[in-house]
Amino acid sequence: MTDTEATTRGTEWLAGAGLRPTRQRVALATLLVGDGQHRHVTAESLFAAVCENGDSVSLATVYNTLRAFCDVGLLQEVTVDGSKSYFDTNTHDHPHFFWEDDQRLSDAPADELEIARLPGAPEGAEIASVDVVIRLRRKSG
Fold it and tell me: DSSP states of 21-88 as a string?
């Protein structure tokens, strides 16, 4: 895939959500979806990738842009340990593996997950979603 094709894919991704294609947004979108593969990134890892690519974008802009992408449904935020956020380009409901040794998130096979029953929501509330993060570590020994 050429750089032009990747940039076009990123620009079209933004347009599909009604976002104006600013230089910074296009640079980030191209890294996120330019090759057509799903990604799990942190703001810091995306910032490092955009800098490596030679683009000039501040870390604050990366955070703000990721938030804007989530707000329009382009990304799904997955929080691990209540503080570390990963951003997933696959916005369909699916479980994740969190690899503790590498601090890395990956997709888990959704067809193997069975949730038989959820507790009822408290009065006046409804369940918006269920996030499943399966924590993994290497076996010792």
Answer: --HHHHHHHHHHHTTS---EE-HHHHHHHHHHTT----HHHHHHHHHHHHHTTS-EEEEETTTEEEEE
